[in-house]
Amino acid sequence: MKPSAEEIGALLALKRHERPEEGFLDDFLRDFHQRRREEEALKAGPAGWWHRLSSWASGLGASKWAYGAGLAYAGAAALFLLSPSPVQVQPTPTVPAKYQVEPAEPTAVEQLDAVDLRPSSQGTTGEQEF
Amino acid sequence: MALVAVWCISAVADAAESTCAASFPGSSGEVQAVAFAVGDGRHYVSVALPEVQADGGKLRAGGRVLPADVFVDPVSRLVVFRTEGAPGQALALAAKGGLGVGTKLRLLSGAGVQATGWIKQINGKMLPLSLLKVDYTNSPPATGSPLLDADGAVAAVAFQSSGQKTGYAIPAEVVKRVVEDVQGSGKVSRGWIGVKLLPQSATPKVTTVQAGSPSARAGIQAGDVLLTVGARPLADYADAVNAFYFLKPGVPSSMKVKRGEKEISVSVTPEEKSAE
Question: Does A101 score more than 60 pLDDT?
């Protein structure tokens, strides 16, 4: 059933007098951002952490710079203290190059006492006297 | 006895008058070889291979054994038979130094032979004297066959075959060395100078000089590098061993040694090497 023109006119007149409470619009925007940050913070992973941190930092106001400077100082100090000390390289003592090459021990060669071309022939090794 | 030469003519069918047959006892019977007359015609030279008993050798003709004294050079395995009676037709021994790579030789039958090089060691073992390596036009001849030069003189003696048409031969100067010993003193002697060398040395360097030896008396010292022995230049240890083979007891031999940067000439008189 469609409303009549009179009914619509009465409804509009009623709405024209409706007003939100005092301060409603001032808190509305802040509440909106607060809820949005809370929803973001609930997200998992680094992005969530970053958003939580950002939310926390933004909530600090002007003092966030002091906190940031302190954090940077603490990080630098920790880096300095925890970094490994430089390795002390002991200089290698200088050893003169050995130019005198020792000749390899020559293989013993047999000397036959007689002209014997058989593979089974046996001679003597070592110094031969003549 | 007077018919030795005649017997020898008939003993070897394809040989000339100067050759005869020799036989040596081996593990599986008599081993045949050729013998040829040298010098005064009463000395026959043959070769006894290592597997036979050299001093049991016999000179044969027409199936008969000819009476002969047997002299053996245990180093070269040359055997000299000394006979009595009428001499055979001796072959001349070529003067030393005429052999080299490419030298044309021939057998008594006329078949061609060519020298292809010197063998100083075999199977990694040093020989007590250098052998001549030869190529034959036909199959290798019997052991002891003379290899003649262009003048018909004996330049080498067939020792042992090494292939279908190749073999080793003993140079004539070795034959001459042995025959002269037998003809002169009735035995094969060896000279001793009292030096020691190492076979594996790259150079013929004296490692030890025996005290009181001919070398010590001549002034040779340990560390000297031998350059020449007699007229033979030495390039290595094998050359020195070959040169020492020709040293004769009591016969002075000139030697040149290198000591540091100096070259020193000495004369060494070998003594007879005592039997070991």
Answer: yes
CB B203 within 8 A of CB B225: yes
Tell me if A12 is assigned to some domain: no
Size of interface A-B (CB pairs under 8 A): 88
Q: How many domains does chain A have?
A: 1
Asked if the structure places residue A116 within a domain, the reply is no
For residues B253 and B270, is the Cβ–Cβ distance under 8 A? Answer: yes
ipTM of the complex as predicted = 0.86
Strand B125-136 and strand B166-171: the pairing is antiparallel
Q: Tell me the residues of chain B between 63 and 102 that have a Cβ less than 8 Å away from chain A.
A: 74-77
Q: Residue A15 domain-assigned?
A: no
Cα three-residue angle B204-B207-B210, rounded to 5 degrees = 120
**Whole-number Å distance between alpha carbons of A6 and B210:** 153
Q: Are B159 and B267 in contact (CB under 8 A)?
A: no
Q: How far apart are the CA of B254 and the nearest CA of chain A, in angstroms? A: 16
Distance from B196 to chain A by nearest Cα, in Å? 4
Confidence of residue B8 (pLDDT cuts 50, 70, 90): low
Q: Which residue of chain B is at minimal alpha-carbon distance from A124?
A: B125
**In this predicted structure, what is the pLDDT of residue A44?**
66
DSSP assignment letter at B164: S
Contact criterion met (CB < 8 Å) for B125 and A110: yes
CB contact under 8 A, B50 and A116: yes
B224/B260 Cα distance (integer angstroms): 8
pLDDT at B165: 95
- Interface touch A109/B74, C-beta < 8 Å: no
By the 8 A CB rule, do B137 and B118 touch? no
Regarding beta strands B29-38 and B19-26, do their DSSP bridges make them parallel or antiparallel, or are they unpaired?
Answer: antiparallel
Q: Is the pLDDT of residue B75 over 70?
A: yes
Residue A44 included in any domain: yes
Give dist(CA B224, CA A16) in Å, integer.
136
The domain of A28 spans 20-76
What's the rounded mean pLDDT across residues B75-82?
A: 96
Cα–Cα dist B192/B246, whole Å = 11
Chain B residue nearest residue A129, CA to CA: B196
In A, what residues contact B, Cβ < 8 A?
106-119, 121, 123, 125-130
Q: Is the pLDDT of residue B3 over 60?
A: no
The answer to whether the CB of B244 falls within 8 A of the CB of B196 is: no
Q: Are strands A128-129 and B58-61 parallel, antiparallel or unpaired?
A: unpaired
